[in-house]
């Protein structure tokens, strides 16, 4: 138990030197640098708290508050060795959870070394549950357990679809990467590699996009899955050619319109249903409960400030959130930040439209009938 009153508060620039010193005493590897601490002290998507006893810095906790999602990630937690066993880590965690919840975040996630049994026991006592594992995660090659907790009260448990995660290998293959995860969630034996990723892109590409390489058309993705033995359907809220709003070149528009019509005709020939209607989360929930997989087209603006169309795989839904596997890992992210990511329902509904026309599109993948 604490022998004196501990003060937990947000880190200030004046704490920088002490934080760096504490980090050096607590960790032999995977240390945060002075530059990283300075960044997190002033960054709007970080929450860095210090713990002091009688004015002495004895611990800190750092959260990463993911933009566009309701997921907070424990980036680092440290308590000086001479003050361990006094409840400092527990109090820091409680304050981090409380402040993150007050800011609107719903889930807190962390990684912990498998051999760190004391920390694992603490996290379990605090309500965290293991939901995955990373092999060879740390610099010393130790494995890491992945743990998660809902930090705001709720009445029911979410049912998450068991779906492998695949990271896209190019900036333009989010559609194929998401489709690969979708197919593998139904048939684990069909997960491929970059060869399959590029093969699907060639089959499903729109040829052009607003800039750069063409992205994938929902009809093209549905056809790619159907050719590989799955039943598919598409939900799109317009009968007009897709993705041409931001394209100024008339020749590009003509090519994209032709590709759209070719995909549409082949879907009709292969009896792939196309529903022309707006996105309904109740229908998404029904598909997931039946064991089907759902790809969604979103705008990345709320995630990274870029207005780009992007495919993700929906892996779960409950009264508060949708959960997605995002195949794209930004420079400041790790793979764990992109798996089973909780996004509030109201945020997702805003995110799941693209462009001036508010395009929404889903590709639903079913086990073959």
UniProtKB/TrEMBL annotation:
Keywords from the UniProt entry: Acyltransferase, Transferase
Gene Ontology terms for molecular function: acyltransferase activity, transferring groups other than amino-acyl groups
One Pfam entry name: DUF3335
PROSITE patterns documented for this protein: GNAT
Superkingdom per UniProt: Bacteria
Gene3D superfamilies linked: 3.40.630.30, Cysteine proteinases
Domain N-acetyltransferase: 6-152
Keyword Hydrolase: no
Stretches of the chain forming a coiled coil according to its record: none
CDD domains: NAT_SF (cd04301)
Entry-linked PANTHER family: AMINOALKYLPHOSPHONATE N-ACETYLTRANSFERASE-RELATED, AMINOALKYLPHOSPHONATE N-ACETYLTRANSFERASE-RELATED-RELATED
Stated name of the protein: GNAT family acetyltransferase
Record organism: Pseudoalteromonas rubra
């Amino acid at each position: 138990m604490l022998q004196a009153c501990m003060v937990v508060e947000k880190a200030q620039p004046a704490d920088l030197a002490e934080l760096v010193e504490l980090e050096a005493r607590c960790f032999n590897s995977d240390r945060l640098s002075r530059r990283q601490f300075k960044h997190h002290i002033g960054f709007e998507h970080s929450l860095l708290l210090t713990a002091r006893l009688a004015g002495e810095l004895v611990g800190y906790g750092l959260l990463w508050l993911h933009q566009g999602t309701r997921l907070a990630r424990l980036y680092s937690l440290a308590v000086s060795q001479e003050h361990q066993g006094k409840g400092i880590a527990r109090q820091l965690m409680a304050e981090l959870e409380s402040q993150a919840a007050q800011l609107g975040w719903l889930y807190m996630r962390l990684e912990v070394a498998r051999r760190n049994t004391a920390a694992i026991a603490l996290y379990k006592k605090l309500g965290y549950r293991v939901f995955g594992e990373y092999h060879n995660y740390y610099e010393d090659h130790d494995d890491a357990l992945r743990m998660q907790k809902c930090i705001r009260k709720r009445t029911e448990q979410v049912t998450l679809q068991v779906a492998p995660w695949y990271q896209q290998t190019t900036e333009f293959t989010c559609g194929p990467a998401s489709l690969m995860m979708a197919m593998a969630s139904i048939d684990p034996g069909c997960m491929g590699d970059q060869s399959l990723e590029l093969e699907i892109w060639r089959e499903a590409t729109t040829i052009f996009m607003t800039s750069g390489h063409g992205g994938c058309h929902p009809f093209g993705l549905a056809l790619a899955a159907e050719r590989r033995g799955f039943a598919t359907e598409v939900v799109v809220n317009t009968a007009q050619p897709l993705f041409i709003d931001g394209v100024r070149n008339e020749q590009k528009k003509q090519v994209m319109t032709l590709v759209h019509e070719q995909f549409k005709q082949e879907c009709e020939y292969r009896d792939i249903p196309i529903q022309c209607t707006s996105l309904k989360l109740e229908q998404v929930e029904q598909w997931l409960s039946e064991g089907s997989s759902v790809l969604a087209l979103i705008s990345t603006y709320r995630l990274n400030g870029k207005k780009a169309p992007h495919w993700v795989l929906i892996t779960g839904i409950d009264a508060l959130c949708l959960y997605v596997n995002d195949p794209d890992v930004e420079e400041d992210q790790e793979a764990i930040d992109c798996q089973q990511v909780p996004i509030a329902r109201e945020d997702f509904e805003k995110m799941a439209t693209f462009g001036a026309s508010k395009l929404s599109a889903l590709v639903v993948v079913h086990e073959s009938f």
